[in-house]
Amino acid sequence: MTKIRLAVINNYDLERVENEVINNEVPEHLLFGTNYLRGLGHTVTFFSTTKSNKNRKHRLSNKIFSILHINNVEVQREIFKRITEFDFILCLCGEVSEWLYLKSLKGQINIPILTLYHHPIPQGILDPFRNLFRKLVFCNQKKILCLSRSVASSYNRLLGKNVAESIAWGVDYEFYERITNNKYDEKDSFLVLSCGRTSRDISTFCSAIQIARVHGHVICQKDQINSDIVSSKFLSIETTNYSGKTKFNTYHKMAKMIEYVRVIAIPLEKQETLAGLTSLLDCLGFGKPVIMTRNPCIDIDIEKEGIGIWVNPYDIDDWVKALKWYSENELEAKIMGQRAKQFATQFSSRNFGERLNKTIIDHYQN
Description:
Order of helices and strands: EHHEHHEHEHEHEHEHEEHEHEEHHH
Strand content: 15-25%
Largest sheet: 6 strands, parallel
CATH superfamily of the largest domain: Glycogen Phosphorylase B
């Protein structure tokens, strides 16, 4: 099999996450298939925005680039300086790739670049100008990967050709089996658990808990809690300071209480991004049903798959109805959790790695 020297760039430190995976602290899907690529014999070198040094010499050009939504230029420059060491550049999020595409367009990079986009094209008042620039940057690209069909569609519409395709981000279900026995306890102390950081609507969720009069537990950062949200007979709140570690080390914390939880909640602000997807993978891995704010960017239809209930953004009544349903339907909730676990085995991180490897090989050889 073809062995490729890969420069892998990301917006968080993959070396740190790789160590956390080895130490059984976090699931391997947070490495986005790079561990699978390494296991196949490819050489993988990580670059991250968190380790990139800011260069004062480029301060003005960086500001100009930021207007075009070209960010994290310094780490892309680091790869460019070492370009002869690599055969292929893999960008694991869109915000760390456009400067490299620009260099490729100018003929200064002659190796393939493949980017995995997490979110649709950003919107703003300068969009018409930015979109002209994006069309220029991407005009020669043969392949773009996206974490959902709606994200892929946004790029295909912009470019006027079908170069973007979706790839399902699978879950490392074996990790969740290792950290919990996942037994269901009829005497669960919490009906519902909510844990997550990005774009969370904690206020609506907590209000619904109080109205539904069911027991809920929230794990979140201190700055996510408004002054009007307080613990009560039905609601307990656990806050943590984000220290830069992935998911602020909540996986094992969740594992200790997950057998006493009937359903996991993912309350979101109104979404045009993939916020909540990582938490949804946690539900699949732990084998728990979910109540989730409807997110049109996420491909998994939790109601169609029989693993959860959608609620509309900021709709307290929707949340109350869903919470009461889980409170009154213990057996059905258990069955939904079993479906979620089965879905996780079919929707695995290994499948993601295999698909990513095939795409890289095809892109490299063609």
